[in-house]
Amino acid sequence: MVHQLDRAAIQLLDNEFYKQVYIFGRTIENLKSYEEDLAFDWLNKLIIVTDNVEEVRLRNDFMHYLVKSCINGQLDPPFDEKPPSKGSFLSMSKLLVGTSCLCELYFGSK
């Protein structure tokens, strides 16, 4: 069962996520076509719904850095490879090491 405060936090985080999705849609054209395919693979991975606040925060971190790559016109790691087919966002957090990710604020250094 999702706690009421968690539900409110997730709603706010979802709103932020969809703002980033909008920016993604406006900036994906900056990438080369093969990178666009990878970026959409990542978007499809990130759009998966979860009711865990920590995972939603981490999902937003991934989306932030994916959008940043699109704005810069080149996919940076980990987005330059296909996303893992299995695993939670928490298990994927190590992929953001070296990106000065916000996940360190939530989970500490990995």
UniProtKB/TrEMBL annotation:
<dbReference type="InterPro" id="IPR027831">
    <property type="entry name" value="DUF4485"/>
</dbReference>
<protein>
    <recommendedName>
        <fullName>DUF4485 domain-containing protein</fullName>
    </recommendedName>
</protein>
<dbReference type="Pfam" id="PF14846">
    <property type="entry name" value="DUF4485"/>
</dbReference>
<feature type="domain" description="DUF4485">
    <location>
        <begin position="13"/>
        <end position="85"/>
    </location>
</feature>
